[in-house]
Specification:
The structure is a homodimer of 402-residue chains. Chain A has 3 domains: 81 residues, Winged helix-like DNA-binding domain superfamily/Winged helix DNA-binding domain (Arc Repressor Mutant, subunit A), CATH 1.10.10; 134 residues, Nucleotidyltransferase, domain 5, CATH 3.30.420.40; 156 residues, Nucleotidyltransferase, domain 5 (2-Layer Sandwich), CATH 3.30.420.40. Chain A contains 15 helices and 15 strands. The first copy, chain A, binds a DNA duplex (30 and 30 nucleotides) through helix 1, helix 2 and helix 4.
Amino acid sequence: MHVAEVNQRLVASPVLRQLSVRSVMERLLLDGATSRASLSRVTGLSKQTISEVMLVLTERGWVKESGMISGGVGRTAVRYEIDATAGFALGLDLGASTLRGVLVDISGTIVAQHELAADGQGGQLPAQAKLLKQILLDAAKAPAERLQIATVATPGVMSPQGRLDLAPNLPGIGELDLAGQLRASLDCQVMFENDVNAAALGEYWEAGENADNHFAFISIGTGVGLGILVDGQLLRGSSLAAGEIGYLPLGGDPFAPQSLEQGALESSIGATGILQRFARLGGSAQTVREIFDRLEAGDSAAEQTIDETARIAALLVLTVTSVIDPDRVVFGGNIGGRSELVRRIADWMPKVQKRPIRVEASSLGPRATVMGAAAMSLGQMHNSLFSTLEVPGRLGLPTLRQ
Amino acid sequence: MHVAEVNQRLVASPVLRQLSVRSVMERLLLDGATSRASLSRVTGLSKQTISEVMLVLTERGWVKESGMISGGVGRTAVRYEIDATAGFALGLDLGASTLRGVLVDISGTIVAQHELAADGQGGQLPAQAKLLKQILLDAAKAPAERLQIATVATPGVMSPQGRLDLAPNLPGIGELDLAGQLRASLDCQVMFENDVNAAALGEYWEAGENADNHFAFISIGTGVGLGILVDGQLLRGSSLAAGEIGYLPLGGDPFAPQSLEQGALESSIGATGILQRFARLGGSAQTVREIFDRLEAGDSAAEQTIDETARIAALLVLTVTSVIDPDRVVFGGNIGGRSELVRRIADWMPKVQKRPIRVEASSLGPRATVMGAAAMSLGQMHNSLFSTLEVPGRLGLPTLRQ
DNA sequence: TTCATTCGTCATGCTTACGAACAAATGGGT
DNA sequence: ACCCATTTGTTCGTAAGCATGACGAATGAA
């Protein structure tokens, strides 16, 4: 009878119960398995309320009993934990050369990860994404219907029409209804995110307990990009163009025609710019990786090339810290993630800024983007399941009357 | 009996009732006076819940009856409105030459504004602030105990020790326990804010309904500064240094010793930099205002000076839009607020950035800072009185487990 | 074996909110 | 003048959610 009663109540799922459920799930997600009495102490809710909430959560399948807690003084407690298999979240990174996927369960544990070589044809992306999804679900023995949500990280910006703009490394991709096709292929709720933003979130997530509220991630590879986290939230900007730093007036004349086309900063410290610099100094290389190899071998042109790149990147760090004052700046991407470069950037910093600033190399490397995509999926899954977004936190300012 | 019952209930002021009170106050703040039945329809709460909430609010003095609503079909309704005299919020702008004050009532209406000439001695600030407060309260016939909160906007940054750092225009101010003295003088809750941040908030508030979520305010005067609003909230940065753009590598060699001391951008488009530029071009002027006067008179050195300043300011706009992508950029300050300058900045923009960006002059002028300070006070007063900040909106990410 | 401690349930009461019914007030139509 | 639809706002009964305190159960320590 008690059970039936609770079931009836929760058809409408009123605000107060939502808040209680949310508190309990938050504690379980952050602290792991505990007893009901312990949850009662931590959340401040009464034992009675906790028991009701747990009843609901177990019925819905989000939480399960997981043995007993004994050993201390007093009665043995029933331990509850999140049923990690209750829901899964997918992160995909659709890069120009590699497709990466990470599957996490509801507790935030990575249960599968895999990568595929891109087959070069942009049109194959939806099919390859579907394949990757299936591989990951199979590897984790996760039933497809438990996949709640996927986040797809791509270069460029997903337009409202579902087309991918500003992604020159994925030729022909702008013609497709990529969003629609991916939604169909993945057969779940799909979100899209810029790859640099996702990488920023990935690095932030990976830093875990030490994560700072304000965080900047700078990617240097074929292009340059910036991802910003403010209070743990991605800063996307009014037209989703925050962090599009290719046109920053650094490293070249911003009024030159080429700067207006390709961007002064990107022309200067993007892969092409670095190669050109190396060539001007008398070196010859097909890839930036080769330049780093020469650097290791003691080649002075390579040394000059990388140091000049670091000098301009230091100005970029100065720019970012001046504007948004992050706690630290993390570099990633094929080029930006090289410790030889980051070390030199850090060396340049005192010459342009008195205030010390933490400049670090990405700790996830090429996996940053896919991890961030998974984090986005996970966060969205949690919030859609357990959050109370309809309860607004702060009042806005009233209209000004004068 | 009913009344007594309600009183008892609200001693603890539980979450659910807080939410109801909040909804009602929000509607009253945004929509003005209405009847209870109308509030019931708008908020979705039942009529008698609204009646109970209104009973509480009238007892507490936040809301009062204000006549009847008749004329339509059906019974005449009792109209309720916020009792604007229930609480007042103060905004102060302590500038180097002028002290400005604005007093707003709880509904967001400006009830008094005044300004005083600073007497030059930094040590007199607390006494002058007290005087200003009293003048404003008297002008509005507001009893002192109804003053809930004040926000003091100052140049530089208020250190945790209550001392004002980085404010060279207020000589000797760094020695005082300014925060403590102001708290004592003003005799209410006092918040502190950087003047540029406050001005950004002021402009944002003044834009009212058309306010955009992402907004950047650039101040050019003796120094240069930037205030950023993201989702209507000020972006302050990890060490409260967001928007300290004086050191941006624009308009001068960032590696020059002077740039490390005074900042490349500030040396270039701060007042001193502009005067030096004018002098290099053969002109002579004591103040930037004179240069603008010559500009109007057709002086070509003045024209060149201002245009070069605009050119560098355009690079600053490019920098800000590249990083945070605001919907528009507003210029203010003694120099930045001049339309002759802003027009030239806007003219330079297409030469460095294809994407159009709204560049505008401040509409509040020198009052932007004090208005922003008042807005901060008002917002804080509303949130402390009626908000439910203990109810968190979004779940954070769980710890990464791999 | 006793006892303090802890876990979890039960019964009870308080607070909040809602819906239905109803009284009161009002304008329009006849 | 009268009726009626409409709207406002109150009263009353009911349901939901949570807290409190009592209580049984389980457990380790003395």
